[in-house]
Structures are given as structure tokens and as C-alpha cells.
Amino acid sequence: MDTQEVVRLPKLSRVAVCGGTHGNELSGVFLVKELLKSKQGEDRNSPILVLSNPEATQRCLRYLDVDLNRCFSRDALNSPLSDSPPYEVLRSRELNTLLGPKGSADSVDFVCDLHNTTANMGLCFIAYSDSDWISLHIFRHLQRCLPEISMRYINFNLPPDEAYSLDSVGKHGFAMEIGPQPHGVVRSNIYTTMKTAVQHMLDWIHLFNSGTVFEGGLVDVFTLVKHVDYPRDCKTHDIVAAIHPELQDKDFCLLNPGDPVFQTFSGETTFYDGNESLYPFFINECAYYEKGIAFSLSRKRCLNVPAVQSQRNQSNEL
Ligand SMILES: [Zn+2]
């Protein structure tokens, strides 16, 4: 056996599980409500449970005024407030007070933010870095525990200041994105996958805090390269095509130059004109029509993750 160096990391004492950051992504909404019923206050080790956007959740909307999950970059959190700020801008500051302040020593150790997608993506971790060993080890743990679930690790590759989503408020964290599930709908299989994954994640954190050594190993990471918009009418800006049937539901299947990507409403096929084969994801995500994203493209890379163990005594270790 090789003698891997073990990276020692601080314990994860304060952990948050958030749902309803998008109020119509119902697996996370109902899972957080369920966990709130059974766990809150009973166990010192239980996570902080947060319904992130209660107003939007009550109305089963993604958001009321602006997308809450785009409000957590350093600039967005610190810019002066207008006279009548959007609801989600105020809410993002409340959440930053509860779980942050982002980037400070006081921020929680770990945030898992629960999301659903209408795309056929299985279970995805979405993170900003490819060197957050905590998130990568939790991902490996879930792969071991749930071999029947297709699982991918997506890296958006942004510096912490520019990271804009709720999970970026913690010292570690990721969005757990599961699909396909229509927004405003809860499907039992998707809900159960999320519930089981969250339980295994919390189990890993408990084992880590108890001093378990987790062996290193390889993880495939999909790093965002670019977003692709729908073809649009240059005057009206209306979309003029839908995702091609041969691309629909083929998230994480390699897209090669010349492959069909769109079918116009007049019946013509358009083809991928890039010169590099890449992996598409978020194909035909309902909520991204407004963002001008028909699908995103990523590059796959195999990453070597070191062994980790929690620091025995954080004050002595320094
Ligand atoms: Zn979402």
C-alpha cells in the first residue's frame, strides 16, 4: 500500500442544510420541513436547517423579485441598498448574518443547499473549486454508499468572492442538484434520493469529526467551460428553436463537433460548431430560459484527492 500523506483539516462543527432557496424546487423544501419536524433542537450535532426563501416557497415560485441564489457574491452582499430593495436582496443579507458573514472566521463550516433541476442530471454536486477536499470526499462517500445513483461533481471555477450562490457563504459547501423533476412538483424517487444522500453526507461529517481517516483517490470533475443560448430572432429576441431530440436528456454524454443541438421551429437542425468535444449539462433547464442558457458545456478531468482526517485539537495544531 502506498503511504499517502494525510491532509489535516479543521472539524466541521457548524453545518447547515438549506432548502427552498428556489421556492418551487420541492424536494429540498419538503426535506428541510421533514428534518425540521424530527430533529431540530434534539441533538447538538444536528445541522442548522434553513428554509431559505420562505415567501417564494409559500407561493411555489422560484423567487419573488430576483433570483436569491445569485445574491451572495461579495459585491452583491456589500453594495448599498436601494430605497425599496428586492425581497431576495434583503433575505440574502439575513442569511449572510445567520450563516456567515461570508469569508469571515464566524461563517458556518459547511453549507449544503438543496436544488432540483428539470434536466436529466441525476445527482450533482455544484461547487466553485476543484480543491475543496471536504466536498470531494463527501462526493466519494456518496458514490460508495449509493452506487446505483448516477452522480457527478461540477466545478464552476470561480474565486470565493465572485461565487454567487448560498452555499458560498460557508467555509465549505456545495449545491446538491437532483433531477429530472419539474419545478412545482415533487417526485418520490427524486425526494428519496435527496433524503438518502443528505443522510449519508451527515454521516460522513460525523465520521470525519470523530477522527476517521478517509483514504485519497480519484474523482472525475466536470469544469464549466461555457453556457450556450438558444438561437433567437434578432428583432424580437424570441427563441426560434428547441433542444434537438438527440441532445434532449443526454446530460453528461459527450457532445462532438457536428452533433445536432437544436431543431428550429421551422424544422431545421443546427449542429454543434465548437471544435472541442465537451460534456453538456443543464440541458433544457426550465429556469434558465430567462437566463439565456439552453445548456452548459464542461470539460471532464480526473482529479487526485488526498487522504483527509480532522485535526485532533485545533488549537494545538496551529
Ligand atoms: Zn435551484
UniProtKB/TrEMBL annotation:
<dbReference type="InterPro" id="IPR007036">
    <property type="entry name" value="Aste_AspA_hybrid_dom"/>
</dbReference>
<dbReference type="Pfam" id="PF24827">
    <property type="entry name" value="AstE_AspA_cat"/>
</dbReference>
<keyword id="KW-0479">Metal-binding</keyword>
<keyword id="KW-0472">Membrane</keyword>
<dbReference type="Pfam" id="PF04952">
    <property type="entry name" value="AstE_AspA_hybrid"/>
</dbReference>
<dbReference type="GO" id="GO:0046872">
    <property type="term" value="F:metal ion binding"/>
</dbReference>
<feature type="active site" description="Proton donor/acceptor">
    <location>
        <position position="177"/>
    </location>
</feature>
<dbReference type="GO" id="GO:0004046">
    <property type="term" value="F:aminoacylase activity"/>
</dbReference>
<keyword id="KW-0378">Hydrolase</keyword>
<feature type="binding site">
    <location>
        <position position="115"/>
    </location>
    <ligand>
        <name>Zn(2+)</name>
    </ligand>
</feature>
<feature type="binding site">
    <location>
        <position position="25"/>
    </location>
    <ligand>
        <name>Zn(2+)</name>
    </ligand>
</feature>
<protein>
    <recommendedName>
        <fullName>N-acyl-aromatic-L-amino acid amidohydrolase</fullName>
        <ecNumber>3.5.1.114</ecNumber>
    </recommendedName>
</protein>
<dbReference type="GO" id="GO:0005829">
    <property type="term" value="C:cytosol"/>
</dbReference>
<comment type="similarity">
    <text>Belongs to the AspA/AstE family. Aspartoacylase subfamily.</text>
</comment>
<keyword id="KW-0862">Zinc</keyword>
<dbReference type="GO" id="GO:0016788">
    <property type="term" value="F:hydrolase activity, acting on ester bonds"/>
</dbReference>
<dbReference type="InterPro" id="IPR016708">
    <property type="entry name" value="Aspartoacylase"/>
</dbReference>
<feature type="domain" description="AstE/AspA barrel-sandwich hybrid">
    <location>
        <begin position="219"/>
        <end position="300"/>
    </location>
</feature>
<dbReference type="InterPro" id="IPR050178">
    <property type="entry name" value="AspA/AstE_fam"/>
</dbReference>
<feature type="binding site">
    <location>
        <position position="22"/>
    </location>
    <ligand>
        <name>Zn(2+)</name>
    </ligand>
</feature>
<keyword id="KW-0963">Cytoplasm</keyword>
<dbReference type="GO" id="GO:0016324">
    <property type="term" value="C:apical plasma membrane"/>
</dbReference>
<keyword id="KW-1003">Cell membrane</keyword>
<dbReference type="InterPro" id="IPR055438">
    <property type="entry name" value="AstE_AspA_cat"/>
</dbReference>
<feature type="domain" description="Succinylglutamate desuccinylase/Aspartoacylase catalytic">
    <location>
        <begin position="13"/>
        <end position="204"/>
    </location>
</feature>
